[in-house]
C-alpha cells in the first residue's frame, strides 16, 4: 500500500515537472524568437541536444528490453496454443484499429476539406528532398528486408524493433520447447535483466522534463508563434480528427475495461505527455511496460503484445497518413474518386506495417503513396513546417492505442489483475 502511494507521488512529481518544462520551453523559445531572431538557429540546434540526449538514453535500453521481456513472456507461456491465441487476439485488435483509424482520417478530411480552404505558402521541394530520396526505393523487397533480420546484432545496433520481435518470438518458442532443465536458467537470467532495465527506466525518466524543454524551445525559437496562425485551419481540422479517434478508442476501451479505463488513463498520463512533448512514442516504451504491469496487466501478455503493437498498431500515424495524403491532393486540386480513396486506404494499410522506428516514417509512406496515385509528392513540403505539431498528437495517440490493446487482450485472457500486476 505504502509503495503504491510512493509510486503515485513520484508519478505526479514527474507529470508536474513535465508540464512546467513544456510551459518554460514555449516561453524560452518565444523569447529567443522575438528578441534574438538572428540567434534562433544556433540556439535551437544547441538546446535541442537536451531532447536528443533523452531520446538516445531511452533508445539505449529499447532493444535489450524488447528482447528480454518478449523472450521471457513467450517462454513462460510454454503453451504454444496460448501464444497463438494471444497473438491472434492482438492481431485482430491491431487490424481493426488500423482500419478504423484510416477510415476516420479519410472521412474527416473529405468532410472538412482543409486543402480547399487553406491558403498555404507554396514552397519548393528542397525541404522535402531527403524524404523524397528515401521514398524512391520503397518496394516489397525493402519491406521484407526491414521485417526479417539478417543479423540479430545488426538489428540491435540499429534498433530495428520489428526484426528484434521476429527473432525474439522464434527464440522464445524454441526456449519454451526445450524443457525446464535447460530453459529455466536462461529464463531466470533474462527475467533479472528485464527487471534491471526497468529499474533503469525510473532513472532515465527523470531526464524527461529537460528533454521536453529542449524539444519545445527549439521548435518555437525557429518557427515562432506565427506557425500556428499560418497553419491554423490544417491544425484545427487534424486535431479535431485526432479527438474523434480518441473518442472512438476510449468508448471501445470503456466497453471492455469499464470504470478501470479511468485508472488506466491516470497510470499512463506521464507516458502520454512525454510522447506528446518529444514526438516519440518510442521514448515511452519502457515506462509504458512498467505502468501497464502496475495497472494489472499480466507481464507475460505485456511483454508479448506491446512490442508487436509498436510495429503494427500505430493508430495516430495511420489516421495521419490518409488525412495528409488527401490534404495534399486537395491543395493541388486533384479530385479522387471514392474507389481511388478506398484503394489508397488499403495500400496504406499494407505499406505502413513494419515501419516503426524509422524516423518520420509516416511522411516517407505518404510520399510513396502520393507518387503511386499521381499526387505531386513535392506537396509534402507544404506540411513539413507543422509536421512537428501533428507528430505530437499522433505519437500520443499511438501510446494510447497500444495501452488499450494490451489491457484489452489481458482482460480477454482473464489476466487483468485488479490490484496491480507482478513486477
UniProtKB/TrEMBL annotation:
It is a multi-pass membrane protein. One of its GO terms (molecular function) is symporter activity. InterPro entries: Na-dicarboxylate_symporter (IPR001991), Na:dicarbo_symporter_sf (IPR036458). It holds the Pfam family SDF. The chain crosses the membrane at residues 12-33, 53-78, 90-112, 161-179, 200-221, 233-257, 326-351, 363-386. GO terms for cellular component: plasma membrane. One of its GO terms (biological process) is dicarboxylic acid transport. It is found in: Cell membrane. Keywords: Cell membrane, Membrane, Symport, Transmembrane, Transmembrane helix, Transport. Its main location: membrane. This is Glutamate-aspartate carrier protein. It comes from Chryseobacterium indoltheticum.
Amino acid at each position: 500500500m505504502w509503495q503504491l502511494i510512493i509510486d503515485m507521488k513520484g508519478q505526479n512529481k514527474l507529470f508536474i515537472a513535465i508540464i512546467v518544462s513544456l510551459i518554460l520551453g514555449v516561453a524560452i523559445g518565444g523569447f529567443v524568437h522575438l528578441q534574438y531572431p538572428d540567434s534562433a538557429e544556433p540556439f535551437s540546434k544547441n538546446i535541442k541536444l537536451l531532447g536528443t540526449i533523452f531520446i538516445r538514453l531511452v533508445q539505449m535500453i529499447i532493444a535489450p528490453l524488447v528482447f528480454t521481456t518478449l523472450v521471457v513472456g513467450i517462454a513462460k507461456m510454454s503453451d504454444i496454443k496460448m501464444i497463438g491465441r494471444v497473438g491472434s487476439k492482438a492481431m485482430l485488435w491491431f487490424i481493426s484499429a488500423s482500419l478504423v483509424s484510416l477510415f476516420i482520417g479519410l472521412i474527416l478530411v473529405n468532410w472538412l476539406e482543409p486543402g480547399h480552404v487553406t491558403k498555404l505558402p507554396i514552397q519548393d521541394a528542397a525541404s522535402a528532398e531527403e524524404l523524397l530520396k528515401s521514398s524512391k526505393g520503397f518496394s516489397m523487397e525493402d519491406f521484407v528486408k526491414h521485417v526479417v533480420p539478417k543479423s540479430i546484432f545488426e538489428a540491435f545496433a540499429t534498433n530495428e524493433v520489428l526484426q528484434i520481435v521476429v527473432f525474439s518470438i522464434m527464440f522464445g518458442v524454441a526456449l519454451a520447447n526445450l524443457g525446464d532443465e535447460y530453459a529455466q536458467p536462461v529464463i531466470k537470467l533474462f527475467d533479472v535483466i528485464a527487471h534491471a532495465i526497468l529499474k533503469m527506466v525510473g532513472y532515465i525518466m527523470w531526464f524527461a522534463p529537460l528533454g521536453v524543454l529542449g524539444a519545445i524551445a527549439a521548435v518555437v525559437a525557429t518557427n515562432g508563434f506565427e506557425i500556428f496562425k499560418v497553419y491554423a485551419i490544417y491544425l484545427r481540422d487534424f486535431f479535431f480528427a485526432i479527438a474523434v479517434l480518441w473518442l472512438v478508442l476510449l468508448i471501445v476501451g470503456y466497453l471492455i475495461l469499464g470504470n478501470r479505463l479511468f485508472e488506466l488513463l491516470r497510470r499512463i498520463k506521464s507516458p502520454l505527455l512525454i510522447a506528446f512533448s518529444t514526438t516519440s512514442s518510442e521514448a515511452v516504451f519502457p515506462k509504458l511496460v512498467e505502468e501497464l504491469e502496475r495497472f494489472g496487466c499480466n507481464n507475460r501478455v505485456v511483454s508479448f503484445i506491446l512490442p508487436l503493437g509498436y510495429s503494427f498498431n500505430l493508430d495516430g500515424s495511420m489516421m495521419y497518413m490518409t488525412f495528409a495524403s488527401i490534404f495534399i491532393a486537395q491543395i493541388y486540386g486533384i479530385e479522387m474518386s471514392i474507389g481511388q480513396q478506398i484503394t489508397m486506404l488499403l495500400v496504406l494499410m499494407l505499406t505502413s506495417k513494419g515501419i516503426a522506428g524509422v524516423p518520420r516514417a509516416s511522411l516517407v509512406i505518404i510520399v510513396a503513396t502520393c507518387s503511386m496515385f499521381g499526387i505531386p509528392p513535392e506537396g509534402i513540403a507544404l506540411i513539413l513546417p507543422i509536421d512537428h505539431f501533428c507528430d505530437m498528437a499522433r505519437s500520443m495517440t499511438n501510446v494510447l492505442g497500444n495501452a488499450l490493446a494490451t489491457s484489452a487482450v489481458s482482460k480477454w485472457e482473464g489476466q487483468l489483475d485488479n490490484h496491480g500486476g507482478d513486477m
